[in-house]
Amino acid sequence: MSFFEHYNYHLAIVLAMIGLYTMISRTNLVKKVAGLNIFQVSVFILFISLGVIEDGTVPILSPDHEVYSNPLPHVLILTAIVVGVATTAVALALVVRIREAYGTVEEDRVHEQDDAL
Amino acid sequence: MLALIVVVPMLGAAVAALLPPGRLPWLLATAVSWFMLYAAAVLAAQSMDLGVLSYWMGGWQPPIGIEYRLDPANALVALLVSLLAAVVLPYAGRSLASEVPEEKSPYLYAAVLLFLAGQMGIAVTGDAFNVFVFLEISSLATYTLIGLGRDRRALTASFSYLIMGTVGATFFLIGVGLLYAMTGTLNMADLAARIPEVAETRTVHTAFAFIVVGVCLKLALFPLHLWLPNAYTYAPSAVTALMAATATKVAIYVLIRFIYTVFGPDFAFGDMPTVYLLVPLAVVGLLSTSVVAIGQSNIKRMLAYSSVAQIGYMVLGIGMATTAGLTAALLHVFNHALMKGALFMALGCIALRFGTTQLDGFRGLGRRMPFTMAAFVVGGLSLIGVPLTVGFISKWYLVSAAIELGWWPIVAVIIVGSLLAVIYIWRVVETAYLQSADDETRCEAPLSMLVPTWVLIGATIWFGIDTRVTVGLAERAAAMLTGAAP
Amino acid sequence: MDTVVDILLLAFLAICAISILRLRDLFAMTMMFGLFSLISAGLFTTMDAPDVAFTEAAVGAGISTILILATLAQTSRREQATPARSKLVPLAVVWVTGAVLIYGTADLPAFGDPDAPVHNHVGPHYIQESGKEIGIPNVVASVLASYRGYDTLGEVVVVFAAVVGVMSLLGLRRRPPGLRPARGKPDPNDVLKVIATMVVPVILLFALYVQFHGEYSPGGGFQAGVIFAAAIILYALVFGLDKARQVIPPKVLNRLPAAGVLIYGGVGVVTLLLGGNFLEYYALAEDAKTAQHMGILFIEIGVGVTVASVMLLIYFIFSERGRGKRPDEGNGDGDGDGDGDGALSRDEGGTA
Questions:
Q1: CA of C142 vs chain B CAs: smallest distance (Å)
Q2: How many Å separate Cα B119 from the centre of its chain?
Q3: B324 within domain boundaries
């Protein structure tokens, strides 16, 4: 019964888990960053789904409409998206530096070089 | 004032980035931190009088707008963060100058100020989403600061912390989102009022779980502490001192705030198996990391593991679910910040002179750097919990709280933890005082670094003897938190 | 009908996500990443969130994808295989987390339910009162810029923190005096040049439109800033990094992020000095709506300045770092084209 009412949430969760899995299980640092982004965007999809209202419309006031979707999740997610790209930028900067310092961006190789110390 | 304590460092960071490289950024950062200390002291005094201070950002009434809310609990945290900043920043000038290229100094100090603004923002806000935003501000600054360490392993340490930290923050965000879905609000006081109606739902339980896990990642509770040893070891010395003393403490505050104020102790400890999770993890954490600390040859790394152990003590206090336990936890939050801040600063002095913090390098240091080593010894005694130090006070309160509950095994654990600390501190003391180095020339640390270190060490003794302020605030805070359940 | 579109888009997203997971060719993965971002923007649009869609498209499909490409240009193009053994723990973690989350959504209000708590407390206030209290039609802009303006200041500071991070980690290498001369190869990108010359001014104009019209339609400082940066990045990709660097002199560009933060914070300080709370726009003028408009206008400018300059700076820093570097197993992408750009031009042929 409630499965179909919540399908949006469930699918978003599945996406998030794919992203989380990518991030944890892959050793390539760039892939980890991509996985992180997928995880985050999926969480955003979950959030925005919360603000949807039946027969509602975009929250821009206009004389033709009465029912609007909730603007608050939109604001929060906008902020979260920007936070996400900021994190991605710093993460990729670290990846570039790691590449320069270690010659590789595979986590295993990096650990090998560190353990050899 | 409540707004300024966060706004000033934020805008200060922007100004710092515009300054030319050299001493100016450091001077600006130091000045800002002293202002923050002044503001925090004023606010703490006000909150002791009035109870709760509230400030409406943008003039909008909460929950429509964002509220800054200060009560004795976060007044203590605000005081702590600004005190540590005000002491570490003067020290940092010389220390960071030797570890980070001067041309980067505007951005370095901008990052430091951003870190402080973020921590302070988390401490004083009354809005759950605002916590997330400022958490990310301080986290991004932290990743930058760690990554500026000299050793290339700082880069991987920072990257690992970035991944783990962002997952934690996202978990926190999921939890807040679920709460919002069930209550329609983001203001913490408002949430506290609305959660009881929906507390029985699976969604709220899940929200609690995600928030707790997310925060525990940031506060480095075992087994989510994996990022910490590398991050602390490879970051520049002054950065480690600042981080060790503030970041995890603020995270513990967030945990306390959500458990006690937002969800309420009845829900958090009654409906959810929190006690059964926090206490065992805390115990395992503190014992295992203390043991690992003993085996470390890099003293900075040893202290990092010690920090995870100390956090275990704090979580233990929270997990006791009593006012006494909470008081002990809050006390240790403050005291540990003092201890570890001072210890890492002493290490930074050693790093300045020798470029390394390996145990071998400590030979004969008792004679070569007498004041620095003395500071280290006092800090170490505090970690162990010797009377007349703040460490003793925290352990005392913690043991009393455990006895009150009749948890004798826990008392034993606390004592064993102290004994383990004796071992790892003794290794350093023995090498420094009882072994001799090839070259015995004196090379004490410069005054600009020695004085702040001793200010903090002095504080660990002062507050170990005159406990009125710390215990007073902690008890008041704990009483308000437990009594203020919805 | 809506449901069908929703499910279709989510299914596409799942396919993208799985291919990102499995693709070992990182260049292809990045393209799927951009696609993922774009489709999610489409999903946001069907869920009545155009502002969010706008930002996600610009930031995710735009900036993030470009940064990943810039990183790949300096690292390797292929990913190593993961030993099967180490996949157990991640799988376990993911299954547990996913299961808990799905369990947690069981008691959520149904998708689109008008009686949900979110539609009955703070949300409706914004919709019903913002017309009177603030007077602009875009309610998201009202909430972003005024009601929760402090969060937005935090957001701008986050962007600033990112550029501080990237500058500290990658920037500040002393540029060799004099610009690097092109290496004599005739540039075959004439078609691109012509199109870019026509398109870049239009994009810039559009950015300005989004900035100032954001109160009446989806848009605002963030989206405008990103679009502005995108225009210049496009210019850099086609005409070369050095020429693009001249558009805004580096000395000025380096200072702009901080300036934007100070503009935004400055508005707050002004309101404090005028007797109100921090960021209380009502202190700025007599008439309530004028005051709000003024406040929102200025902070959005601060936002736009910071976001545009940060995105641009980060792109420039990544590209300059990549100058003269070769990626592993390069197939002519990355820096193989010899014009010292760090710009990717796939049609150069194997000059690794």
A1: 11
A2: 10
A3: yes
